[in-house]
Amino acid sequence: MEKMFKLKAHGTTVRTEVIAGITTFLAMAYILAVNPGMLSQTGMPIKGVFTATALSAGIATLVMAFLANLPVALAPGMGLNAFFTFTVVMGMGYSWQLALTAVFIEGVVFIVLSFFNVREKIIDAIPNGLKKAISVGIGLFIALIGLTNAGIVSSQTGTIIGFADLNGAPLVAVIGLAVTCILYCCKVPGSILLGIIITTVIGVPFGVTKIPQNFSPVSLPASPIFCKFEFSQILTVKFFTVFFTFFFVDVFDTIGTLVGVTTEAGLAKNGKIPHVKEALLSDAIGTVAGAMLGTSTVTSFVESTSGVAAGGRTGLTSAVTGILFFLALFLSPLFLLVPSAATAPALIIVGFFMLRCVVDINFADPTEGIPAFICIITMPFAYSVAEGIVWGLVSYVILKVVTGKAKSVTIVGWILFFIFILRWVLK
């Protein structure tokens, strides 16, 4: 362990790393309940998605452990799974097979760019304000999905959208949200997962959680959805928008998480991420593996900071987390028992996490603040992450040009601007 992970050099021990790995798993295990429930709405088999979720998380996290030696865990990302389900499949009308194809190609491109260090140019092409706005917009989008899935808000209220009657599933979800918020504010480890468990139990007397007869919490894992790709429409402009959004959100989600986790752990030097090439490569490998197994984009999880707070400093933390994801494969009946009313609080609280960076947006400069605002409101109101990015970037370029600040737009930014305009023209 010492030779592989350099524990002494990082001022840690095997015991500390193991505890940190367990803590990280508890903090992000909610994805095993949320991701299958969300992707199954596209028609994908829920048990197969569960297997793909656990396997891809385990594989990607172990690659991170041994390749980058960082205490960062990975799994199918929140926001990206919502984009996959509600925008690409339900909104654009694409099949889930084509959506998986976009994820697969994005992962392959990410691997190539990780080798040639091209990612910085793409990152620099997007203004800092829009980077923050995208996170905020996705947070609102995810929260709205949670509120809608639980039936807390509905369009059947006589208004465009409003609060539904709080009984049954909506009441259980509200109670669960209160429990989750209390656990989180009290800094209870694994508060989101504990909130899901408690809400699921609360749902039993309400008839919301349905326990089948002869229920067993342990079973052999179902077969994953292996290599179900569709390449017929990959040369269209519309497909490029889908691919670009998957790629773009994955890049910035990963970079942001890596910066946050390594800084929290005291591993970053002068703002630079250690082993960043290997870390990004781990993310890309996880995405390719996830697409082949049948799940949306795999990315680094900010919940890794919980393991860092418990003392995790090396890849051994990630190795423990990855192994626990593999063991979870045999507990699919437990995770799939969770109703949408119990996963809704997790979606809403994750929305809160993503909303926090709104304070970093420069609203004092209207050429920065207005595009960020447009990006933020478009995602939940248009029910589309992609449209938020498109409208945000297009409005940014236009406002910079008309105010004489065109130099603020990078070459890559101009290329993306014309691609998005072309997308509207060819609709």
Automatic annotation (TrEMBL):
Keywords: Cell membrane, Membrane, Transmembrane, Transmembrane helix, Transport. Pfam families: Xan_ur_permease (PF00860). The chain crosses the membrane at residues 12-33, 45-67, 74-92, 98-118, 130-148, 168-185, 192-211, 239-259, 314-337, 344-364, 370-397, 409-426. Its main location: membrane. One of its GO terms (molecular function) is purine nucleobase transmembrane transporter activity. It is found in: Cell membrane. GO terms for cellular component: plasma membrane. It is a multi-pass membrane protein. Belongs to the nucleobase:cation symporter-2 (NCS2) (TC 2.A.40) family. Azg-like subfamily. This is NCS2 family permease.
